[in-house]
Amino acid sequence: MNKTASRSKFSKIIAVCAIMALVGVFALAGCSSQSSSSDSSSNSASTTSESSSTESTTLQVFAANSLEKALPEVEALYTQQHPEVTFSDTQYKASGDLVSQLQAGASADVLITASSSTMDKADTNGSIDESTRTNMFNNDLVVAAAENSNFNVSNLTDLGTDSTITSVAIGEPNTVPAGKYAAQALQSAGLLDFTTADDGNITIQDNDFVTNKLNAGADKVGTVASYVREGQCDVGLVYSSDIYRYDGIKNIYTIPADMHKPIVYPGAVCTSTSNADVANDFLNFCLNDPDAQRIFSEYGFELAS
After folding, report:
1. What is the CATH number of domain 57-138+265-303?
2. Going by DSSP bridges, is the β-strand pair 134-138/302-303 parallel, antiparallel, or unpaired?
């Protein structure tokens, strides 16, 4: 073979090798692209899976009327920290009415009442999980008057002896816990007396104070505050927290705690809930989160020890 033919054959071999090398490069690039695409798809699927695992939850809370201002702020704070949890239209009513609603078949996730006795009824009715029950807040009972009034009380007996005070409002004692505490305090002051039935309901006995001054028919403690603010009654017995949440009224006398049973707000998870873990976490949040504690304190509630 001459030198020219040899060089030609060698050039062909070099060309074939170059082509094969280029094919290999493109093949590797294709594999890399497919791998990257596969990894991207895998990551996307993983993200979707994680996203779907965080399910949204809506809690229904039944709460004592006196929590009407403080609790919405705490609920908003909880949602801020737990975006997957929101709250439906929280029901703020007299504790006895809320317990009756649950007994009649209403559904809720959390119940917070303004007295131990109403929570006892909810427990007896099977409306709450007793193992989740906890004392949440304490409160004080005060005599409230209109902000622009001149009434002065230095002792609870003044409500009976002061001729300038012609009407005293309290909540209905058998549905409004503040009304029952008020009746106990007025009994301690010697202004009224009542009998207690086996179911815990009380019947106030008639006397001059009851007949001539007492208005014991308010459907909730907020109604007592409105009677006072609007001048329908001279004074009313409400919680100290109500002074913070209602405009137009002031505290003119704080009733000594030993004149009535301790004012305790228990909370519990309802048996009708399908969100028991979240409901219990919200109760714990109310008691342990520093910002939640600050909000309750601003509205006059003391954390139960």
Report:
1. 3.40.190.10
2. antiparallel
